[in-house]
Design a protein that fits this description.
The chain has 86 residues and is α+β, with helices and mostly antiparallel strands. It has three helices and four strands; from the N terminus they run E-E-H-E-H-E-H. It comes from Idiomarina loihiensis (strain ATCC BAA-735 / DSM 15497 / L2-TR).
Length: 86
């Protein structure tokens, strides 16, 4: 399965994952308004991976299948501090 990844023009470190070729039809208008202009950054072949930076490919595929998209938000400040201290 191919997946397109878009970066938000309004929110730093915020990404929207969509099935390849999807025209944002499953993304709520409110979310698109807050997301801003979507800049495509890459296309990922999920068949070649098990893990992404913040979630498993299995979880991502579940979101894409059930919701039609996945919104990746920046990690919370506490999560960053824990990762730095490891």
């Amino acid at each position: 399965m191919l997946c397109d990844v878009y970066r938000s023009s309004k929110k730093a470190d915020t990404y929207l994952y969509l099935p390849h070729g999807n025209e944002f039809t499953d993304v709520p208008d409110v979310l698109l308004g807050q997301f801003g202009r979507a800049e495509k950054v890459l296309t990922i072949n999920l068949a070649n991976r098990e893990q992404l930076a913040r979630l498993t490919v299995e979880k991502l595929q579940q979101h894409l299948h059930n919701d039609g998209f996945y919104l990746q938000l920046p990690p919370k400040r506490e999560e960053l501090q824990v990762n730095v201290n490891k």
